[in-house]
């Protein structure tokens, strides 16, 4: 809703030209009380949830499917909480009902919905989580290597106990030209 709600009043107002053609639904159909505004409750309903008057939240009354028995190992707990209709995929309405109704939350959902079909399947979610974990691990390993290099450089621990040590020296000669010298030193301790 945040992207289209120019007035930031929590509704999409027809008079404020917030009913644009890029909305993923027909605004007239979403405006259930015909007041020229689409409320958050109306938006949730049009996106697939059913609002109950008592708790004003998206609710579903479906039993878990047999596919729930075959979910991949490592399926995050939050997936079970969000998948209210137990169809092994998340709609935008299911996701936003649990996460929140901000533009950042909607962007998170779009990130999980890899093929942009409006449904984040468990396969898409697991792939994104795997890629995220691999990138986190790669960055951690890179940081650890950099920390080791830095420690070795600062305390001289990269010197061998015995053997040859190679150093590269860059200096300027009398004419101001850079000269690169490679010096090998025999080390014995």
Description:
The structure is a single chain. By secondary structure, the protein is of the alpha+beta class. It folds into three domains: about 1-45, Recoverin, domain 1 (Orthogonal Bundle), CATH 1.10.238; about 60-160, EF-hand (Recoverin, domain 1); about 160-189, no CATH class. It has six helices and eight strands; from the N terminus they run βαβαββαβααβαββ. It has helices spanning about 25-30, 40-45, 75-80, 90-100, 105-110, 120-155, and strands spanning about 10-15, 35-40, 50, 60, 90, 120, 165-170, 180-185. The strands form four sheets. It has a two-stranded antiparallel ribbon. Strands 3-4 form a two-stranded antiparallel sheet. The radius of gyration is 29 Å and the shape is elongated.
Features:
single chain, 189 residues, alpha+beta, Recoverin, domain 1, 3 domains, two-stranded antiparallel ribbon, two-stranded antiparallel sheet, 8 strands, elongated
Q: Which fold does the CATH topology of the largest domain refer to? A: Recoverin, domain 1
Strand order, biggest sheet? Answer: 1-2
> What fraction of the residues are assigned to beta strands by DSSP?
15-25%
Q: Taking Cα atoms only, what radius of gyration do you get, to the nearest Å?
A: 29 Å
Question: Gap between N and C termini, in Å?
Answer: 70 Å
Q: Give helix % range.
A: 25-40%
Low-confidence stretches: 50-63
Please give the count of helices.
6
CATH class of the largest domain: Mainly Alpha
- Topology order in helix (H) and strand (E) letters: EHEHEEHEHHEHEE
SS-derived structural category: alpha+beta
